[in-house]
Design goal:
The protein has strands at about 1-5, 15-25, 30-35, 40-45, 50, 55, 65, 70-80, 90-100, 105-115, 125. By secondary structure, it is mainly β. The protein has a single domain (about 1-125), classed as Sandwich (Immunoglobulin-like), CATH 2.60.40. The strands form 3 sheets. A 5-stranded mixed beta sheet has the order 1-2-8-11-6, with no helix packed on it. A 4-stranded antiparallel beta sheet has the order 5-4-9-10, with no helix packed on it. The chain starts with a strand and ends in a 10-residue tail after the last strand.
């Protein structure tokens, strides 16, 4: 699988921003994916996970997405500006992305951000995997 993130500045503002997570089947056989990814911010300084793992955006009901070789599935990530929490700020340039089956990858962010170094703060919510990117 190939993971990538795309900034969505046209959908962002008022302390929130969005990134599109794209997962592409790089294998030789079709596969199914359903559900939500789990995302955790990674400190650019220490490489440690920071903040709480992502919550879920309840915008859609999970269903199987069949990925033929070369096909992609998409999840919308909704992030909150870390400065809104009043916690220690940490530079973030990568995310830990875990799939519903437990496999994971470290994925570069589209641009550097600040994360919140507080395990009680959940700055990311993820959308269900879908055959097409979410459009507002």
């Amino acid at each position: 699988m190939i993971f990538s993130l795309q900034a969505r500045p046209e959908d962002s503002g008022a302390g929130s921003f969005f990134w599109g997570l794209r997962l592409t089947n790089s294998g030789d056989e079709a596969c199914l994916i359903a559900g939500y990814p789990r995302v955790t911010l990674i400190s650019g300084d220490s490489g440690a996970k920071i903040g709480a793992a992502s919550g879920r955006e309840p915008r859609a009901v999970p269903s199987d997405v069949r990925l033929e070789p070369g096909d992609s599935t998409f999840s919308l990530l909704h992030l909150t500006q870390a400065g809104a929490y009043g916690c220690p700020l940490v530079a973030v340039t990568t995310l830990d992305v875990t799939l519903p089956d437990g496999s994971f990858a470290v994925v570069a962010t589209p641009n550097p951000i600040e994360g919140c170094d507080d395990p009680a703060v959940q700055p990311v919510r993820t959308g269900v995997f879908a055959a097409e990117p979410v459009r507002f």
